[in-house]
Amino acid sequence: MPLIQCSEQKRRSLEDFYKSLIPDKVNTFADIGSPMLNVIKLINETFKETIIFGLTSHATLLLLDKDSSLSPWFVAINGLETAPNGQRNEYYIEYLMASDKQPWADAKIKGGTTSLDELRTYIIIAMTESKGWTDSNELKNLYQSIKSVDK
């Protein structure tokens, strides 16, 4: 199921929001929009059944399990083009630790990668470990496929 924009931000689509962050001229400032469009495409291609709501906070994409900005965000993703013409993108992800594993309130795990394949794996792990989508069989299957590759 495609990433669903949180209804509180329906003024423009997630794609349109990130397109507006693509610079008009080369080297005017860092391109945040193009890498984040890659993230949206990756999420849409990976999850066909899981309901995921997207909410933007500045340039950060927050993944929620409910259609409300007041619900906790479980996963946060940022992207940045660090070489001209998309030759190198960096992706940063963080997720809220499940409450039964938190050493303190609202503890989070952070990481980063330059690979969309790794980011896909990190998103699956983050969504699973945060326990935001416990009812998603699709997520459980994706997580199991990652775990079987690790062995």
Q: How would you characterize this protein structure?
A:
The structure is a single chain. The mean pLDDT is 92. The chain is 32% helix and 24% strand. The two termini are 29 Å apart. The chain has helices at 14-19, 33-46, 116-129, 137-150; strands spanning 4-5, 53-57, 60-64, 75-83, 88-96, 108-113. A hairpin with a 2-residue loop joins β2 (53-57) and β3 (60-64).
Explain briefly what this protein structure is.
With 151 residues, this protein is an alpha+beta fold.
Question: Which word captures the global form?
Answer: globular
According to DSSP, the number of beta strands is: 6
Quaternary assembly: single chain
Structural class: alpha+beta
Provide the β-strand percentage band: 15-25%
| Rg over alpha carbons | 15 Å
N- and C-termini, Cα separation = 29 Å
Question: Strand count, sense and closure of the main sheet?
Answer: 6 strands, mixed
Which percent bin holds the helix content? 25-40%
Low-confidence stretches: none
Strand order of the largest sheet: 1-2-3-4-5-6
> Could you give the order of the helices and strands?
EHHEEEEEHH
Can you give the mean pLDDT?
92
| Tally of alpha and pi helices | 4
